[in-house]
Design a protein that fits this description.
Chorismate synthase, AroC fold, alpha+beta, homotetramer, 7 helices, 351 residues
């Protein structure tokens, strides 16, 4: 595997398996002289951890942040930050029944095809646990973006067919599904709890807004801001699609509707989602991702074993019936990583 | 700008502006000993060129392929192919009226913000003309994929709200919008012609299928097959979204519906779009992109000049009222580039 | 700092400071299914550690290898190996007197100029301790090269003006300076001990031979085998030069002397050092590096403080009076990293 | 081949074979708004071209510079510059006798081993002609470095055993071997002319000084300034070694001699060659390279054919009996590319 590094000038490399000794990240390219402490990163980790509510997995990962390098007397030195999260509360026995069978919707089959060997304990490297390193690295990027006046905010807009119809920013971290509409959130939670009882799961939509971006960010031709964000988001396990601004609705629009006209005060609309020609316009950047239903369900499913024989499987264990609330901090982390990298690339270009 | 290179082991670097002397591409990482001639590449270029029908721009770009390096006695040598396409039929005067104003939906404003200088002639580097180099490079990748038994096929599934309701592969190259449903194609063409007369434009959906992929292709964690395809597609000018398999519909599905179960004969469905955990399953890979309406319309639009003064603009010139048919070969080219690169990365991993 | 990653398809990223909590490495691109255990890596670490003899620093680093990811049931899985070495026996107080002054020959001055902040404890990231991660990563590469039948062997050929005049491969690991001539080794050791007593240090020459390389390895134009080896070696702290084959002596040779002629049995000589046009010939690859005298000496030296004031400094602490014996495993590690990466790049090219 | 790109943020990709249609380069990462014209680049190309004197090949390459992209109204736009040099005066027939035999000292054997196919015309991609693209790209970097107050100067210090004993900067471009000592230059020229008549060739030493570098340039750990320069220089065909500052002489020095002490006015010496810990000290950066004798000689040499049969070969054609004077602008070009890239990487780090 050699796709474990993300970014060019602000770069993370993650490591670790779900049930190995630890997961973590090396963050390279951090500006020297910045105050970054473990508590700051811990706050982001805590938003990602399981066991936060009835709609997330009761597993306790703890995710206690340890920074082992790159900090001297509380400040970054310009050398790489190594952030480690030791694994705890692992119950590999819970996964032993799936050692010899492929769970539908999981990467079990494809990893075995690719590598000829598979760490079957809790999905190994393909586990959502791998995102812990992303969130830690993203927290460092977030800190640097704060200094630039840039804010990244993600939240759930739909779960299981229930969509938000209002945008209340304050409500987001106040409900268990991190939805932007408290009324919808209540319905979503009820739905997710019912599905959990039924042994099923559901998907949703997460939206992300970036505020405070200056115009000019993004590196055409291939490394457009939207292209890099798309790669970042599709690299998250459960994400099946992304759209910017009007997105797929653009396909049914006229040019006269879709074009964002301007007057002396700026743009009159934001169908483009804050990006033109791959470069930020200075407006809010806005995109949405499609999150598939959690693959781990306890309903019986048809599959085959590693021996090719047909069998049924129930994915037991402690899983999130809907991954949206926990994917929100991962989306933010990945967006922060893309943005900080683009700022640095821009500085290089202009130098 | 330093995002002009795409790929790791199979890599293209493109150059050129819409109204400069030439556009083109350096293709690096081509296996030695392969028969690649200009005619093979020319066929792909001809699919992309304007002036093919009533629904594409009447501009004549010609796009005559010249390979200036990397071929010896008709075969690749393992050294980089430099493919150049000299520019012709440029009418910069047609663009002079937009020298001092920002066209809505175009990158005029953002390029000036980023670079402080703007080659305003036909959008310069931000022009769709830049994709000529991609198609040339993608044709080389296509040739190599043919040897691997991999086929990449893109086509229009919706334009201006008219959707295909059947899939007739033979029909695709037989109609001017490259739609997979001949009946829908007729309606689409009529709609586009009406919009062109009205000085407006419309968007659409393009779908892409990859056949013959073995299971195991794709490099997790960050360089997942779907993540790389997403970046590739969003790097194309007019693309505003991408979805794999069930895509955004996944958000409303249950896990028990979305998971692709298996029996001894293989997968029973393909909601995932042929990719699990970022690695190909061996099924057809399928994704769709949202294409925005062409930004260049001749209806009057409100904008500002480079002096900040408000003004109206009509984007005259010879433009495609819907870019879908011409984006089809670009989508295929980018997909080919991603796939060939992933094959090479896989070979390195397994070595 | 963002030069902490080395290699393209076989890639290491190192982290850690001399007196931080730990140093280590993430090794990415390791083939799955290979038996790699901590003991194998530990053997290479032990060759690098201080305190091995009278001519190396009496510091005890221990360097106990822990592999925290990428191994499952004793075999590599294709996911990144994270190898950590916790720091021990740190005496930061020994360095406090140099907090406010720049040690001659060290990176103190330049790091402060570059970063505006300096982890002065034992040189921080610029410490030789940083090479521990390289040796751990190089050990993984060495294991993979063994499977390819490739052997990398480095040894001292000169120290303090005393040169080896014979090549006895068995003697190398039997003497404290890792010289290839036991008689010269005895003289070298005596000289180094005298210099240590006098508070001074000396330099030397280390030679490296690579055996078992097939012809064809190396990626022209810029990533020639010798170019990559040169970068790898010059990235080691104390290295001030490198030469391949006849090296600097080539400058005084005639073409008729330098050209390696061939007969049916192969090359008749190896002035080129086993590389032509940046690609291996199939002969032994041979190169030498110039190692400067250890910068840390206890003789008084003139310097300035961080306040710009002139002062004298004696670099106390436990240092190697000659770094050659301990640089030998680092040279081998870096050579292994380059070679394994080139094998993988070759596999990609040929795929 | 996929080592045709050099640099991270200031990046060149070269293409072309000796006897193909053209050679050239794409230069990516050029700051927008800079005046760069073909005449500026042409001046550097003219320093590299053959036929300048009795000691260089009488071939006429002309090397007329054409910039086909990235310039608008005389200024860079931030998009990639494509610079092409069409090939002329090719006499492939002169090479046909070597189609079936490996020339000693050339890459004929290794290219065939690597690629299984060989463009035998004038060494194809392995020809010195490939450096034309480097010099064109390096000229762009040189222009940008001028704006930073950085000057790169290379010159010959020894040829065929005759060494310069003085440094007269004005003399360098006034003599045919580009030596820094006019008296030594006269002896060198005489020697080279004699060797040419005898059908032989000789090597030499080229030194390079970089002035005006601020302290702080260079990216540790692996991408140290000296490491990147070493890679750049060893990527030039005939270079067999490099040393910085005291270089190989360091191996016989004491720490008390080698360490560059400081007083309030700065460093008291420059044994290190202006680089400590891989970062510039603000002093002159100085390094030397070993240049092997030209491989093409007309004296008979023993070799084998592609059929494995033994035979004699005389490399006829028009070759440089000593490559030093023509390698000087290539050394400068590669140094400029490294430096400009490091400036940009530094800007990214500090942003």
């Amino acid at each position: 595997m050699s796709g474990n590094t993300f970014g060019e000038r602000f770069r993370i490399t993650t490591f670790g398996e779900s049930h190995g000794a630890a997961v973590g990240v090396i963050v390279d390219g951090v500006m020297p002289g910045v105050d970054i402490d473990e508590a700051y990163i811990q706050r982001q980790m805590d938003r990602r951890k399981p066991g936060q509510s009835s709609v997330t997995s009761p597993r306790k990962e703890y995710d206690v942040v340890h920074i082992l390098s790159g900090i001297f007397e509380g400040k970054t030195t310009g050398t790489p930050l190594m952030i480690i999260l030791h694994n705890h509360d692992m119950r590999p026995e819970a996964y032993q029944d799936i050692q010899q069978a492929f769970r539908p919707g999981h990467a079990d089959f494809t990893y075995l095809q690719k590598y000829g060997i598979r760490d079957y304990r809790g999905s190994g490297r393909a586990s959502g646990r791998e995102t812990a390193g992303r969130v830690a690295g993203g927290a460092v990027a977030r800190k640097l973006l704060e200094r630039r006046g840039v804010q990244v905010l993600a939240y759930t807009t739909a779960i299981g067919g229930i969509a938000c119809s209002s945008f209340d920013e304050q409500a987001i971290e106040q409900n268990a599904v991190r939805a932007c509409d408290p009324a919808a959130a209540a319905a979503m939670i009820k739905k997710v709890e019912q599905l959990a009882l039924a042994g099923d799961s559901c998907g949703g939509i997460v939206e992300c807004r970036v505020r405070g971006l200056p115009p000019g960010l993004g590196e055409p031709v291939f490394d457009k801001l939207d292209a890099e964000l798309a790669k970042a988001m599709l690299s998250i396990g459960a994400v099946k699609g992304i759209e910017f601004g009007a997105g797929f609705a653009s396909a049914s629009m006229l040019g006269s509707e879709h074009n964002d006209q301007m007057n002396a005060a700026g743009f009159l609309s934001n169908q483009a989602g804050g990006i033109l020609g791959g470069i930020s316009t200075g407006q809010e950047v806005i995109f949405r991702i499609a999150v598939k239903p959690t693959s781990s369900i306890s309903l019986p499913q048809q599959t085959i074993g590693t021996d090719g024989q047909e069998r049924q499987i129930r994915t037991e264990g402690r899983h999130d019936p809907c991954i949206c609330p926990r994917i929100v901090p991962v989306v933010e982390a990945m967006a922060c990583l893309v943005l900080e990298d683009q700022f640095k690339r821009q500085a290089a270009m202009r130098s």
